[in-house]
Design a protein that fits this description.
2% strand; two-stranded antiparallel sheet; globular; 568 residues; mainly alpha; Hydantoin permease
């Protein structure tokens, strides 16, 4: 059976499962739609959190980044992993005890201000749309290759699937769909990694194979071979970094604190019955996330060695285009791989200098990895299903945040306080539908490759939400004026910096022109510091928070009494 037929069968089967779950778990109330009635088992919630967390950037793009960037790509691995730990241990218990299941709801009540709530809604929608653009781009990449449709058609198909189970089931439908999606994506990630690790090093566990000797009898370690190939071909040594220390620090910090401010992950801690269960689900999620994140460097290395060998040939002199491996011709049709015969010899050659004749999109590395290694067709189809699962799972969570922010925080709490539960649910579904259409447009016209777009979203979250949440929990005297001024200044500065270097003047996007040597991917950390500074200064020169608010803050800083907090 050929790859396309298998892909249709496996992807179609997963879609049937997702839709079946959505029908089974249809939301009947706003409590179902927003937080699945707070009745999800901690283990299931851990899987759903992991699926929500491991987006297309984690599944499709992170290993691709590491494969192309080598050591420098580790900033994404460190930032996203460290960020989840920060969120799970330092913020989630307090937010869960406070009892507000959206970031705008927390900010609006903690800072006793509808203006603060509205600013938070705008920030949440802006961050979520930036993030979801990367997910839809990932859906389009997968569909364009494996279902042989163009990226636009692929995005539209993905929109239709997300529309069905997100609009119909809300958080209840999304949660149980994400449990299934986690099972699909983790199998799709680990199976080819295990296959290739055995083929290249003889080790079943990819994490061990990553640092082991090759099984070809040469006695050469895998990473030593890749370092040698990289320097011979004009690339930087794979295991050495080229980014400045300050940029590495700022990117890692932006990803970490941005994680802690991501609203679609925070809401996950309200879908379990008790505070104790929120802690348990955080631990389970960390275990489930670690399975993928510790495997990513191995996949990146396996894919890069095999890619160089198959393009440049055994004698490292290039491969005749007529004899090109099938994976190259397959991906050429998507426009994500291109060959230019610069010297007219009819041979493909890949390098990091003027000899290079190949243009390879880094987003394809994980998806193409089984084909590059010549694995069975069913493994290739499984990876396609995993990539779609990763993108759709996070897209659904983000779209729910957008709809919740609009229907619950903006309409119910601010503009239309007298609407009924049924009307609020209707508005939430309408908001989801509109958000899906906008997300689809952004997926068809993305502002960058998947992980880059997601990195921008984390920077925006870091510069807007994180200081407001931290100060809201740990500073009794922080007032509404400080929080509002901090959020506006932080996200405005960060967005302006990113937009200037990425869209207005991309030619100037070089280390020489960056402020303090900080790239757009890391500027969220500086935006966060600006947010903190502005909030603290403004709070010092304005009136203190009311005494009742200060007492409430003192209370939530001690997340005891499991089971006492509600998700209302």
């Amino acid at each position: 059976m050929d790859i396309q037929t298998l892909t249709f069968l496996i992807v179609g089967a997963t879609f049937a499962i997702y839709i079946g779950i959505a029908i089974w778990s249809r939301a009947g109330s706003t409590h179902d739609f927003y937080v699945a009635s707070g009745g999800v088992n901690p283990v299931a919630n851990g899987m759903a959190t992991a699926a929500d967390w491991m987006s297309a950037a984690s599944f499709i793009s992170m290993a691709g980044l590491i494969s192309f960037m080598g050591y420098d790509g580790a900033v994404y691995l460190m930032g996203w992993t460290g960020g989840y730990v920060l969120l799970a241990l330092c913020l989630a218990p307090y937010l869960r005890k406070f009892g507000k299941f959206t970031v705008p709801a927390f900010i609006g009540d903690r800072y006793y201000s509808n203006t603060a709530r509205t600013v938070a809604v705008i920030c949440a929608v802006f961050v979520s749309f930036t993030y979801v653009a990367g997910q839809m781009r990932g859906v389009g990449v997968v569909f364009s290759r494996f279902l042989e449709v163009d990226i636009t058609t692929g995005v539209i198909i993905g929109m239709a699937i997300v529309f069905f189970y997100a609009v119909l089931g809300g958080m209840k439908g999304i949660t149980y769909t994400q449990v299934a999606q986690y099972c699909v994506l983790i199998c799709a990630y680990l199976v080819p990694a295990i296959f290739i690790s055995i083929m290249m090093t003889g080790h079943v566990i990819p994490q061990i194979g990553f640092g082991a000797e090759l099984s070809d009898g040469s006695g050469t370690y895998l990473l030593d071979k890749l370092d040698g190939l990289s320097t011979e071909l004009g690339f930087a040594e794979y295991t050495s970094g080229t980014k400045s220390t300050i940029d590495v620090f700022f990117i890692t910090a932006a990803l970490m604190v941005g994680t802690a401010g991501l609203p679609h992950v925070i809401v996950r801690f309200f879908t379990v019955p008790k505070v104790r269960d929120a802690r348990k689900s955080a631990g389970w999620a960390l275990l489930f996330i670690a399975l993928l994140y510790t495997t990513a460097p191995a996949i990146a290395t396996f894919a890069r060695v095999n890619m160089i060998d198959t393009i440049n040939g055994p004698d490292a002199q290039g491969t005749a285009y007529e004899e090109a491996p099938s994976w190259i011709t397959n991906w050429e049709s998507t426009g994500l791989i291109a060959w230019e015969d610069k010297n007219g010899d009819g041979k493909m050659f890949y390098s990091g200098d003027a000899r290079n004749e190949m243009k390879i999109d880094r987003d394809i590395m994980v998806l193409a990895n089984p084909e590059i290694a010549d694995l069975p067709a069913w493994v290739i189809a499984l990876v396609a299903a995993g990539g779609i699962a990763a993108a759709l799972s996070t897209s659904a969570g983000l779209l729910l945040v957008i709809s919740t922010s609009i229907s619950h925080d903006l309409l119910k709490r601010n503009l239309m306080p007298n609407i009924s539960d049924k009307q609020e649910l209707r508005y939430a579904r309408i908001a989801s539908a509109v958000a899906i259409c906008i997300a689809g447009y952004l997926g068809i016209n993305p502002p960058g490759f998947v992980a880059q777009v997601v990195a921008f979203a984390f920077g925006l979250a870091a510069s807007s939400f994180f200081p407001a949440i931290i100060l809201g929990i740990f500073s009794k005297k922080m007032n509404k004026e400080g929080a509002i001024a901090g959020m506006i200044s932080g996200i405005t500065f960060t967005a302006a910096y990113i937009i200037y270097f990425k869209f207005i003047n991309p030619a100037a996007n070089t280390p020489e022109n960056w402020w303090f040597g900080i790239s757009p991917e890391g500027i969220g950390t500086l935006g966060m510091l600006l947010n903190f500074a502005v909030a603290i200064v403004v709070a010092r020169f304005t009136s203190e928070a009311p005494k009742a608010v200060q007492e409430m803050v003192a209370d939530i800083r001690f997340p005891k009494g499991a089971g006492e907090a509600s998700a209302h």
